[in-house]
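Morning, I've got a small favour to ask if you have a moment. I've dropped the whole record in just underneath, so have a look.
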Amino acid sequence: MPKTWGWRVAVIATTLVVFGNVAGIVAGPNVVTDSWIAIAQSAGLVLIVIVASRWCGLTWAEAGIGRTNLLRSSLIGAGVGLGLAAVVLLGLEAGAQLGTPITYQPLRGASISAVLTHSLVGLLLQTAIPEELAFRGLLLGLLMRKLTRLRATLVTSATFVAWHVAVQAQTLAATNFPRPWQIVPAMGLAFAGLFAGGVVFAVLRLRTRNLAAAVVAHWLFDAGLITGLFFLTRS
């Protein structure tokens, strides 16, 4: 391995984090609309993955891309993604029954067709595929060259959280948490959830030996959560 491995990984991770937060601020909350800015953000992320992969000589196998276990990985990912979404939604519903309902303003005036289109198409093409290529494909694949599975998973998940800082702040600002003492713990829980999600997606990709498991789990978790929040917000 070249001596520049650590430097190259650091440059790639920093580029991902900076790009993700700047693009997130420019795009703004993007829940039910598929704007040109959001499409450009996804295309830019894929471009970063392609350039970085060629720069570091990342192979398809290292990125978890291939036909091995493709169907099985996809089915496992679907089950995990939908299961996690159900758990989170049940927690939110339990909170609502206890007197702390959560509403998300961008969903209040949205139509069911717009929500479903974004959940089933937009989230797959603009979120799940590009982000999994970047984090559980590119970054995890590079880290696995030198680190153990555990360390590579933890570093990838921490970078995944850093990528979402701006997006998460905008998301919480659009909820019914108007006071700092409410936003701070909510932000902490959100970051913990993102880190845990990153770990789950990495484990899926490594255990099934195919990136498809992480892509499908990421997609259906987000889709299930957005769709469920839509109905919770309306109720």
Summary: The radius of gyration is 18 Å. Residues 112-143 form the longest helix (32 residues).
